[in-house]
């Protein structure tokens, strides 16, 4: 089975303010690179990051530029999945660059639960299904047709789940989220 990580990093970060939140430092490293570093430690066949034009350097990742980030997260996800499909991936592990606290063990647990082309596995802190999530090949067509800001949320309603601590699934939406930790 060939698995590609698709790291979404093209958001406009409207709630964060004028600064590019993924370039803001968290523990001495740009916020966006925390998830990338964790994904780089996994035995994946491909690593894709979907970014805007002006973005960080993403070592170990194939960069796909989203020239229309205003269309929403669904468009970024569609671009990443399309790239993974072209690389021959059988599954995609979708992660968000503004979720820096997801541990390696959680990503590994998602991969371990993969059961083939029809599987979809989401993360959960007990209250909702959310990213990171893993989708088998049968989901690629639906993922490639996504638009809007909801991303793949509607596709996760019946997903199997891997539990995580709530603090591990926190995403950074505002400057206060960075300074308040």
In terms of topology, how is this protein built?
Blueprint: E1 3-9, E2 25-26, E3 29-30, H1 31-40, E4 46-51, E5 62-65, H2 73-86, E6 91-96, H3 104-113, E7 120-124, E8 129-136, H4 140-144, E9 160-163, H5 175-179
Parallel strand pairs: 1-4, 1-6, 4-5, 7-9
Antiparallel strand pairs: 2-3, 6-8, 7-8
Defining key terms:
about 180 residues, alpha/beta, Spore Coat Polysaccharide Biosynthesis Protein SpsA, Chain A, 7-stranded mixed β-sheet, two-stranded antiparallel ribbon, 9 strands, about 25% helix, globular
**Main pleated-sheet profile:** 7 strands, mixed
Intertermini distance:
38 Å
Tell me roughly what share of residues is in helical segments.
Answer: 10-25%
How many separate structural domains?
Answer: 1
CATH class: Alpha Beta
- Round the Cα radius of gyration to an integer and report it: 15 Å
Shape: globular
Query: What CATH architecture do you see?
Result: Alpha-Beta Complex
Structure description:
This protein has one domain (about 5-180): Alpha-Beta Complex (Spore Coat Polysaccharide Biosynthesis Protein SpsA, Chain A), CATH 3.90.550.10. About 25% of the residues lie in helices and about 25% in strands. The longest helix is centred in the middle third of the chain and has 14 residues, at about 75-85. With about 180 residues, it is α/β, with parallel strands linked by helices. The termini are far apart. One of its GO terms (molecular function) is nucleotidyltransferase activity. InterPro entries: MobA-like_NTP_Trfase, Nucleotide-diphossugar_trans.
């Amino acid at each position: 089975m060939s698995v590609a990580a698709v790291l979404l990093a093209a958001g406009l970060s409207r709630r964060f303010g004028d600064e590019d939140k993924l370039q803001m430092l968290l523990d001495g490293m740009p916020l966006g690179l925390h998830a990338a570093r964790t994904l780089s430690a996994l035995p994946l066949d491909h690593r894709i990051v979907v970014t805007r034009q002006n973005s960080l350097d993403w070592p170990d990742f194939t960069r796909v530029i989203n020239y229309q980030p205003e269309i929403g997260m669904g468009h970024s996800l569609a671009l990443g999945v399309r790239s993974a499909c072209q690389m021959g991936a059988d599954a995609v592990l979708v992660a968000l660059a503004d979720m820096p606290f997801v541990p390696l063990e959680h990503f590994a647990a998602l991969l371990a639960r993969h059961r083939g082309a029809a599987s979809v596995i989401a993360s959960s802190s007990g209250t909702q299904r959310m990213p990171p999530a893993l989708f088998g090949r049968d989901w690629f067509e639906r993922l490639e047709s996504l638009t809007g800001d909801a991303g793949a949320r509607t596709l996760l309603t019946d997903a199997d789940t891997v539990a995580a601590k709530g603090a591990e699934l926190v995403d950074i939406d505002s400057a206060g989220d960075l300074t308040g930790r």
